[in-house]
């Protein structure tokens, strides 16, 4: 037996008056918070509400400006945790599964689990003992994974299990899961939830960080809502529902997404047996047609070919096999050509290849047309026009920023995304690639982005919306295709689909409406014919 | 027991005061550290400081000497600043300086034309030579991803040996009494003096103009914006359709040309002919100048004057006190390190924690 049993309602963890500022930003403001044994507490809040900061303080990555953390010790008494020390947090039995895993890819799962638990000078790793303990842990909580396979060969869901086992192996009494479902298929998420419930029954305290209301309502016993760094509500799950939680999270009523009708016109994107990219993210013989006036969603866990598909349409990837047409002409591996042809593109990772952080807001807005006569004359930048355009975009998209001259890196993710959206939609593109367009955005910003994409589609653009968020796809996509291991299912009308069918397809089992669809090649060939006429 | 802990935390936008203060403070800290080391030699510190300042700026002569020294440093500082801004690590300004000088004497030593034609020709030749020398490493970088730090650094030694070969062979001055030196640049090709009786020459004006030109290109032209975008985030620049490779090539040509101009200004403004000890490491010192200027083209001017002042002042000091003039190198090296440490504080602030 490996998981420590603690009596019914022992308090495992108490945070008292935690405050933390970063410059002028109050990330945490007097937050009190308690976690009991056997309990799942959800920490709910929008991005930037202070969830991650709070957990980083708990785990010793940051030191709070004020407040204390108490953790139960072996004898069952609460004692203060030394601030700013991850080692102390680990020793006190706090385990954390970060959103981005901290695993060594070339080692096996088992090696990752025992890494750091033995002295660096130990002669043997005592693998046999470790394996026995890990096996019994897996048995107990119902999380199975091949611990002898190297981590790079595991799926994201399997890696997450390794992370959880790692925390349990270190005898964690408190387990923190930071946005754990972001990388899972719906079915995998269900498995995770039952494992978490099993852990809670065993007496662990679990903190579940999320911004997804359904998950929180399904899993948590108690819900703590953070907004702008403050704890605004703490309620039992019985007292909570979607509306109450949304109001607490956002502080106001929000108009939900409203699906629009598709008015498909001529094809704007045609893929026929397209292969490109390399490695795990390779796209294999994909066929797809996006028409003007419709939003086609691509569901699937990231790393299944999304990057290759997006790079191809963005003009960053060379076509290897098949036929790819954008707006009637073959896709070429040249971003500027694609932009000039009328393809609007939103990148998956804003900070990685979206913005140049040290350039100003205004400069970032014109990066895609540095050579257009609208922004330069005789080689010189037309500063006043550029500035005026930027000011207008800031107003139109309601971007919160100090002004057009501020370095863009100072802005929040939501505001950066609004600017990038404005840049992509400049000149009314007829094909729009939106790759994870709302990842990490709060509800307000998400709905804003959705509205803009819907409006673009209504005005006659074809939208290719690649997303991990099924709710998003079901809300605004007219048709949905699923990517798994580089293979793309047919795109099926959203009204014919449900979450389990999409979830199965995300795990590689094509069934239901996806299986009923006509063979892909026919559809693509039709589109190509239509296009040529 | 109380424990005191330090921690770096990110800060927002740095203030103007901080931006200007950090390089100045870095220079001062470097001087103080160097004086600390100097005191270990037993030299009288007060007199040392006095001699240093006097030697750098105490007399009109000292001042013009400092500015003369600063002239090539402005060029090489600009060469580094332009390249580094686009994250093109040109460590080869020393070599580019020498090929620039070589081209200058090749043209200026033989072409019998009026000044109005000859001087622009010399300038053009030197700039072109420097630019072409950097073109190779840049193409290797953009085509084959060869690290330009290695190629540009190693080219410095190749170029220096090449210059020595030329000075011993085809370009040796037959009237040079056997010394390995080139023919002198014709009088019509020499840059004029700025102050009578002093060595200060109009290369300084050229350097100042170059700094202003670089500033305008970086801030006000689309190509400058593309350079800054490529340096700031090459992946984002590529995504936005900026031609990253050709932007790097243009950056490299500019950087190499500026370093080549340092060579032109030294031979056509100061020495008159080329020897293989034309530069006491101006190319490398230019990197320090650029860092001290935080890669800002206009700030290169005061940074170069500071470094030049240290060199010139240290000469006077070492003569006066009998200390090695390597002291100047020490200050320059310390200034680089202090600036690098100092620039950390532009993005981070220190927090002191007292833990009970």
Any key phrases for this structure?
heterodimer, A: 533 residues, alpha/beta, six-stranded mixed β-sheet, 23 strands, globular, B: 356 residues, mainly alpha, ABC transporter involved in vitamin B12 uptake, BtuC, two-stranded antiparallel ribbon, 2 strands, 70% helix, 4% strand
How does the SSE layout of this entry go?
The complex is a heterodimer of chains A (533) and B (356).
Chain A: E1 11-22, E2 25-36, E3 40-44, H1 51-58, E4 66-72, E5 78-80, H2 86-91, E6 94-97, H3 109-114, H4 127-141, H5 156-169, E7 174-178, H6 186-201, E8 205-210, H7 213-219, E9 222-227, E10 230-236, H8 242-250, E11 267-276, E12 283-291, E13 295-299, H9 306-314, E14 321-326, E15 329-330, H10 335-341, E16 343-346, H11 350-354, H12 361-365, E17 376-377, E18 380-381, H13 383-396, H14 413-425, E19 431-435, H15 443-458, E20 462-466, H16 470-476, E21 479-484, E22 487-488, E23 492-493, H17 499-506, H18 512-516, H19 520-532
Parallel strand pairs in A: 3-8, 3-9, 6-7, 7-8, 13-20, 13-21, 16-19, 19-20
Antiparallel strand pairs in A: 1-2, 1-4, 4-5, 9-10, 11-12, 11-14, 14-15, 17-18, 21-22, 21-23
Chain B: E1 3-10, H1 16-39, H2 45-58, H3 60-85, H4 93-108, H5 115-144, H6 148-168, H7 203-220, H8 222-232, H9 234-239, H10 244-271, H11 282-292, H12 300-321, H13 327-347, E2 348-355
Antiparallel strand pairs in B: 1-2
Helix pairs in contact in B: 1-13, 2-3, 2-12, 3-7, 3-10, 3-11, 3-12, 4-5, 4-6, 4-10, 4-11, 5-10, 7-8, 7-10, 8-10, 11-12, 11-13, 12-13
């Amino acid at each position: 037996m490996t998981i420590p049993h603690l009596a019914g309602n022992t308090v495992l963890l108490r945070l008292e008056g935690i405050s933390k500022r970063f410059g002028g930003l109050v990330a945490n403001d007097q937050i009190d918070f308690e976690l009991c044994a056997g309990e799942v507490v959800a920490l709910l809040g929008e991005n930037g509400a202070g969830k991650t900061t709070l957990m980083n303080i708990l785990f010793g990555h940051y030191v709070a400006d004020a407040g204390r953390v108490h953790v139960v010790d072996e004898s069952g008494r609460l004692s203060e945790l030394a601030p700013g020390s991850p080692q102390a947090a680990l020793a006190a039995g706090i385990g954390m599964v970060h959103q981005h895993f901290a695993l060594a890819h070339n080692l096996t799962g088992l090696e990752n689990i025992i890494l750091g638990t033995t002295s660096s000078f130990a002669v043997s790793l005592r693998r046999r003992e470790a394996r026995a303990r890990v096996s019994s842990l897996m048995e107990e909580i119902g999380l199975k994974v091949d611990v002898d396979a190297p981590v790079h060969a595991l799926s994201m869901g399997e890696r997450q299990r390794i992370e959880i086992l790692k925390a349990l192996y270190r005898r964690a009494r408190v387990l923190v899961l930071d946005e754990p479902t972001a990388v899972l298929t719906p079915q995998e998420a269900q498995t995770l939830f039952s494992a978490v419930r099993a852990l809670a029954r065993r007496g662990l305290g679990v903190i579940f960080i999320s911004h997804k209301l359904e998950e929180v309502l399904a899993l948590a016993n108690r819900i703590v809502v953070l907004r702008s760094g403050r704890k605004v509500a703490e309620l039992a799950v019985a007292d909570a529902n979607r509306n109450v939680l949304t109001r607490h999270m956002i502080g106001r009523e929000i108009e939900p997404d409203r699906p629009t009708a598709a008015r498909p016109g001529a094809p704007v994107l045609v893929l026929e047996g397209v292969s490109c990219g390399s490695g795990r993210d390779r796209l294999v013989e994909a066929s797809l047609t996006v028409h003007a006036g419709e939003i086609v969603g691509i569901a699937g866990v990231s790393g299944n070919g999304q990057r290759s598909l997006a790079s191809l349409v963005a003009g960053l990837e060379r076509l290897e096999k098949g036929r790819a047409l954008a707006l009637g002409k073959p896709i070429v591996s040249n971003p500027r050509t694609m932009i000039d042809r009328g393809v609007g593109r939103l990148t998956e990772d804003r900070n990685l290849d979206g913005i140049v952080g040290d350039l100003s807001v205004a400069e970032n807005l014109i990066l895609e047309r540095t050579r257009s006569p609208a922004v330069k004359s005789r080689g010189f930048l037309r500063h006043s026009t550029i500035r005026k355009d930027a000011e207008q975009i800031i107003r139109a998209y309601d971007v919160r920023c100090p002004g057009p001259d501020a370095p863009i890196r100072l802005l929040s993710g939501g505001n950066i995304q609004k600017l990038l959206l404005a840049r992509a939609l400049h000149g009314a593109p007829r094909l729009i690639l939106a790759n994870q367009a709302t990842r990490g955005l709060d509800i307000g910003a998400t709905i804003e982005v959705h509205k803009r994409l819907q409006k673009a589609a209504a005005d006659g653009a074809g939208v290719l919306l690649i997303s991990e968020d099924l709710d998003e796809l079901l809300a605004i996509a007219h048709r949905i295709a699923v990517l798994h291991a580089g293979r793309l299912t047919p795109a099926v009308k959203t009204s014919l689909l449900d979450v389990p069918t999409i979830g199965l397809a995300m795990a590689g089992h094509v069934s239901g409406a996806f299986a009923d669809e006509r063979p892909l090649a026919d559809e693509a060939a039709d589109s190509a014919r239509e296009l040529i006429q | 027991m109380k424990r005191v802990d330090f921690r770096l935390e990110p800060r927002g936008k740095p203030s103007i005061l901080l931006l200007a203060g950090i390089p100045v403070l870095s220079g001062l800290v470097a001087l103080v550290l160097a004086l600390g080391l100097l005191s270990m030699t037993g030299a009288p510190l007060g007199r040392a400081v006095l001699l240093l300042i006097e030697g750098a700026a105490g007399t009109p002569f000292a001042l013009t000497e400092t500015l003369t020294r600063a002239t090539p440093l402005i060029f090489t500082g600009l060469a580094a600043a332009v390249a580094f801004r686009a994250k093109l690590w040109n460590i080869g300004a020393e070599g580019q300086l020498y090929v620039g000088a070589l081209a200058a004497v090749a043209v200026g030593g033989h072409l019998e034309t009026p000044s109005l034609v000859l001087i622009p020709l010399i300038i053009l030749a030197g700039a072109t030579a420097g630019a072409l020398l950097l073109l190779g490493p840049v193409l290797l970088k953009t085509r084959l991803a060869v690290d330009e730090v290695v190629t540009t650094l190693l080219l410095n030694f190749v170029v220096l040996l090449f210059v020595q070969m030329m000075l011993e062979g085809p370009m040796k001055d037959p009237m040079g009494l056997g010394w390995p030196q080139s023919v002198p640049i014709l009088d019509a090709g020499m840059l004029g003096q700025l102050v009578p009786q002093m060595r200060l020459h109009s290369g300084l004006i050229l350097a100042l103009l170059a700094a202003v030109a670089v500033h305008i290109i970086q801030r006000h032209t689309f190509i400058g914006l593309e350079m800054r975008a490529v340096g700031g985030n090459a992946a984002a620049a590529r995504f936005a359709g900026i031609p990253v490779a050709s932007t790097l090539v243009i950056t490299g040509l500019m950087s190499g040309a500026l370093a080549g101009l340092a060579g032109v200004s030294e031979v056509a403004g100061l020495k008159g002919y080329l020897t293989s000890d034309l530069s006491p490491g101006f190319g490398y010192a230019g990197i320090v100048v650029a860092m001290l200027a935080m890669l800002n083209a206009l700030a290169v001017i005061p940074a170069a004057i500071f470094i030049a002042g240290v060199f010139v002042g240290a000469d006077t000091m070492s003569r006066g006190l009998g200390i090695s003039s390597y002291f100047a190198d020490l200050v320059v090296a310390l200034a680089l390190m202090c600036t690098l440490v100092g620039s950390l504080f532009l993005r981070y602030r220190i927090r002191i924690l007292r833990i009970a």
